[in-house]
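Dear colleague,

Thank you for sharing your sequence with our group. We've completed the structure prediction you requested, and as agreed, I am returning the results in plain text so they can be pasted directly into your records. Please verify that the sequence below matches your submission; if there's any discrepancy, let me know and we will rerun it promptly.
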Amino acid sequence: MATATKESKSSKQKTSGMNSAMDLFVHELSDIRSAEQIVISMLEQGIKAVTNEELKTGLEAHLEETRGHIDTLDKAFKELDLEPEDVECEGAKGLKRELDEAIKEKPAPLVLDAMIAGGAAKTEHYEISGYSGLVDQAKLLGEDSVAKLLSQNLKDEEAALKKLEKVESKLQKELVGESKK
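Please find the predicted structure tokens below.
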């Protein structure tokens, strides 16, 4: 089992911060876990706000999938015999602020649906980037079982993005059509 270290291997002196590839990996893994928790609240908020049934159904399905992603991340930490760090994902918090602002603006329902679909797609890109890096790091660290777990979350995020992009495109076309009336 891998362990994150707070000691320098060469001097065995206590140090603070990240000092190894494993320390960085655990930090990034903790960060994506935080992101997934924030995404859950974003999905719940989006589900309440949207009016388009196809978008709502997609968000509901991805909410369940996201809960599963947290379970998968917890399995990864268990594989590593480690606990997640207490971190908040600043990137996901920024995406959540964008959602909050979109809803607060109270745009027309179709505009809000398009805004939420676009914001959800941005969020998927963010998660895909995070998981892609984590899979690579896990492989380099020789943590193949962890890499396999993370690869499944990555595949789920990529599939969710494709679905979202289709719905977003439909909403944008409908919105442009309404604008031309």
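Summary note from our side: Residues 35 and 92 are 5 Å apart (CA to CA).

Kind regards,
the structure core
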